[in-house]
Amino acid sequence: MTIRVAMWSGPRNISTAMMRSFGSRADTVVADEPLYAHYLAETGLDHPGREEILAAQPTRWQDVAHWLTGPLPGEAAVFYQKHMTHHLLPGIGRDWLAGLRHAFLIREPERVVASYAKVRGAPTLEDLGYPQQREIFRAFGGPVVDAADVLRDPEGTLRNLCAGLGFAFDPAMLTWAPGPRPTDGVWAPHWYASVHASTGFTPYDPAPADVPPHLHPLVDAARPYYEELAAARPTDHS
């Protein structure tokens, strides 16, 4: 039976590298942000590649849910779904989520906000996905990994994650060939240059995050959400 993993991350994280990691497993198929077209259709936001995204994915969340929980071609043991938490809009039903195993990729708010501020000057808490991430965690639970832990100790952190999801770690998850993948979303040319150039996880950078002063309140608002999930990490993380 296929294990369906919904990995929930906010933006400006290592979510695409994590998708590469899982996609390197011979027993795994991946899906890249399957709710993105629905999110754009409902919000009307003008993201890079908007028209291509709307043409490439279902815009009805019900169709997406059916695909993510329905029959899969082949014999994949793991179906890894890379989700952005802010794509889970309030109008999307939640019942179908019970058919997935959930995991959560978190990152310190100051690092998320500092990175996001470079591409958008005034994000909201909902843009960062922290409330939605906590909602899913409280409803369904599941293993939590911090991006900093992954970058400090990829093998140890991924071993804990795989164990929490109910399958064995595969050393193939630590490296991958550079370049694009057919499973990458059509938005990849706009956002995935660094991942396309990579062959594994980059080392952790301990330099302090440079948060613009006007966004300090946003960091403070996000911190309780982050800390609640961070407390659920394995106790032996590095």
From TrEMBL:
InterPro entries on file: Class-IV_PLP-Dep_Aminotrnsfr, P-loop_NTPase
GO BP of this protein: carboxylic acid metabolic process
Domain of life: Bacteria
Signal sequence segment: none
Stored Pfam families: Sulfotransfer_5
Similarity section: Belongs to the class-IV pyridoxal-phosphate-dependent aminotransferase family.
Name the record gives this protein: HAD family hydrolase
Source species of the chain: Actinoplanes campanulatus
Lineage: Bacteria, Bacillati, Actinomycetota, Actinomycetes, Micromonosporales
